[in-house]
Amino acid sequence: MSLLMTFVVAIKALRRNTMRTALTALGMIIGVAAVIVMMALGSGARTTIEAQIRTIGSNVIMVNAGAGGFGPVRGGQGATTTLTVEDAETIRREIPGIRYISPGVVTRTQVVAGTGNWNTVVQGTSEALPAIRSWPMQFGSFFTEDDVRRSARVAVIGSVVRDQLFGSGTDPIGQVIRIHNQPFRVIGVLSTKGQAMFGQDQDDTVYVPYTTAMKRLLGRDYLRDITISTENGVKTTEMTQAIAALLRERHAIPPGSEDDFMIRTQEEIASILTSTTTTMTYLLASIAAVSLLVGGIGIMNIMLVSVTERTREIGLRLSVGARDVDVLLQFLMEAVVLSLAGGAIGVGVGFGASYGLSRLMSWSSLVTVDAVLLSFGCAAAVGIFFGFYPARKAAALDPIEALRYE
Amino acid sequence: MAASSAGDPLVLVDGLTKTYTLGEVAVRALRGISLTVTTGEFVALTGPSGSGKSTFMHLLGCLDRPTSGTYRLGGRDVARLSKRELARIRNQEIGFVFQGFNLLPRTTALENVELPLLYRGGLSGARRRAMARDALEAVGLADRLDHHPSQLSGGQQQRVAIARALVTGPTLLLADEPTGNLDSRTSIEVMDIFQRLNVERGLTIVLVTHERDIAEYAARVVSFLDGRVRSDRPVGRRRTAAVELENLTVRHDEALHDVETDLEVRRA
Questions:
Q1: Using a CB-CB distance cutoff of 8 angstroms, which residues of chain B are in contact with residue A399?
Q2: What is the rounded distance in angstroms from the CA atom of residue A328 to the CA atom of residue A362?
């Protein structure tokens, strides 16, 4: 019998018992839909994280002061005092392919404005920060190179700081805030960027020129970090190596000793985070796949019942000239049609459920072609795998006994 | 298959035995059967249950293989044929009619008759339906094509089953207790169909029955006992179903006439 005929016969057989067919397919529908939804949520989470990573800025290399590595007492990260403004300037001068560079220091302190005050992060940085992070202003402007050179007492504040000190949505340009009891003029408010990774809120930060921060707030001559953004097409790994070599030379670190700094690229951070979400996605999807397995067992169960019920039919088919392979294919086809029909409906249900979830719970979800193909493929595989045993049982029946079966 | 004409041996069985093993007990269902059926014959196999007549019929129908002995169908030694070739023979050269009809439920008469044609390649859907319709017409069911088995009487169901056996144009029709589930009048109708197929188409028919009066519609009765042929002789006074049906109808009409007259007399 041709495959097309087998298909037609399978459809007819399945339609003879609509309720049972529908319930059996339901197992597959739930399984496939669950896989689709889980993968959609995973993809959505990954997209969100990738978007967050982009807020660091693209093509970004970060040089952090390392852990103090000398003597019995070791400081934490940023404890070394060897990373200097001169390091930043030398990197800028000697390493080709750098677009922007921004030395950085950071402190946490109380910021006062009139009667209000707010404990926040004060970050010293250069005029290049908005360019590195592609961060537009809401009001005013960022400080200039001139402000940095003059160690001007100017501040650009994040939207959370503005909301806390001046009231939500106000324009505080020209107002004065006091940091460590020194007046700073607010010259700009950055647009809201949202939570960065690792829970740090980029909007809950005051940005001042790094020179001002070092001299007037911290009274120190070393940096916590240097943020570098590269020209397009520059290989970050090569640049990382060049920066490391330069800094080791400048810091006179003998070969074999540990670096007193740490270089990370945006890509490294991105790949760690994406691989985490990918792992989560596959974990969730494999939990969902368990329901696919249960659906498959449902199919096998029904097919076994069906083979028993239709023993006489099988005997008859054999007696009118069906070969055992015809019988095998017929029952296998029924199982596969069941699972694929369930799979197709499941894809639809999965689409609907992911859309509904992202609307209701405002989770981001993304149904990918991969997810659809994977779950559909799984459905087909489940149909063939769980359909094979009942089909083989049917094909192995003795025609005489099958015809006599009551 | 070689065209066989009346008088040629169609079925040639020699020293056929069949032994089943049920657990540790060997059941010798057939203990050496030798038999020849020529093309165009109408043979009835009778015998008490357990005499081996059904086992013999399964061997004739290529549903089973003998333990020893030879079976030649249309000149070919069946023992040498592959499973695939046996399936082809069942499909194209043999038609089966069963006691329990064995129709597919919730499937129309036409589709039931089409079934064997599905296992024969190279036929279009239209051609299959035309062949099935012809077969149903031949058994007088042209007006029941779209009925499901549950909507048909026992006799009609058995006629659908006969149409299914005929649709492939077999040379040998095997009927296993075809009247076992039917009342006497319907039994005669079915035997009428068999007799007409035998005479008009020259179809070779082997009929298994334990009812002596049904066996008398055949031309020859082979009687089985304990796995052996006990007797093999032509039927002396062969019954003709068509004539009996006519008489039945006449008697029925007469009875009806009597009742009507009776009623009229009472009214008067």
A1: 63-64
A2: 48
What is the ipTM score, two decimals?
Answer: 0.89
pLDDT band for B1, please (50, 70, 90 cuts). Answer: very low
The pLDDT tens digits for B143-198 are 999 999 999 999 999 999 999 999 999 999 999 999 988 999 999 999 999 999 99
Q: Domain boundaries in chain B?
A: 9-93+172-267, 101-169
Partner B contacted by A314 (CB < 8 A): no
Listed residue (B173, B202, B181) closest to B44, CA to CA:
B173
Asked if B119 and A12 come within 8 Å (Cβ–Cβ), the reply is no
Q: Are A35 and A350 in contact (CB under 8 A)?
A: yes
Q: Nearest C-alpha of chain A: how many angstroms from B7?
A: 27
Max CA separation in chain B (angstroms): 78
The pLDDT score that the predictor gives to residue B2 is 45
User: Contacts for A302-307 with beta carbons within 8 Å, 24 or more apart?
Assistant: A302/A20, A302/A24, A302/A338, A303/A331, A303/A334, A303/A335, A303/A386, A303/A387, A303/A390, A303/A391, A304/A389, A304/A390, A304/A393, A306/A13, A306/A331, A306/A334, A306/A390, A307/A331, A307/A390, A307/A391, A307/A393, A307/A394
In terms of pTM, does the model score above 0.80?
no
- Using a CB-CB distance cutoff of 8 angstroms, which residues of chain B are in contact with residue A317? 115, 119
Q: Does A316 touch chain B (CB under 8 A)?
A: yes
A404: contact with B, CB 8 A cutoff: no
CB atoms < 10 A from the CB of A216, how many? 18
User: How long, in residues, is chain A?
Assistant: 406
CB B47 within 8 A of CB B110: no
Nearest-angstrom CA–CA distance, A388 and A395: 10
CB A337 within 8 A of CB A382: no
B88 contacts on A by Cβ (under 8 Å)? 321
B225 to chain A, any CB pair closer than 8 A? The answer is: no
Residue A220 DSSP symbol? -
> What's the mean pLDDT in B62-84?
92
Interchain pair B61, A319: CB under 8 A: yes
Cβ separation B118–A9 shorter than 8 A: yes
Share of chain A above pLDDT 70, in %: 94
Probe site for chain A from B49, B60, B63, B92 (most A CB atoms < 10 A):
B63
**Pairing mode of beta strands A116-125, A205-209:** parallel
SS3 B130: helix
- Chain A residues touching residue B87 (CB < 8 angstroms): 318, 321-323
Task: Quickly state the pLDDT bin for B44 (edges 50, 70, 90).
Answer: very high
Inter-residue contact A49 to A287 (CB < 8 Å): no
Please indicate if any CB of chain B lies within 8 Å of the CB of A97.
Answer: no
pLDDT in tens, A14-61: 988 899 999 999 999 999 999 898 888 888 888 888 777 776 666 888
Separation CA A174–CA A184 (nearest Å): 10
Whether A11 has its CB under 8 Å from any CB of chain B: the answer is no
Topology classification of domain B9-93+172-267: Rossmann fold (3.40.50)
Closest CB from A5, A326, A403 relative to B98: A403
State residue A371's pLDDT score. 84
Q: How many residues does chain B have?
A: 268
DSSP-derived secondary structure letter, A255: T
Contacts (Cβ under 8 Å, ≥6 apart) of B177? B98, B99, B208, B209, B210
Taking alpha carbons only, the member of B142, B145, B157, B149 closest to residue B99 is B157
Disruptive mutation site among A1, A312, A319 for chain B (greatest number of B CBs within 10 Å): A319
Amino acid (1-letter code) at residue A87: D
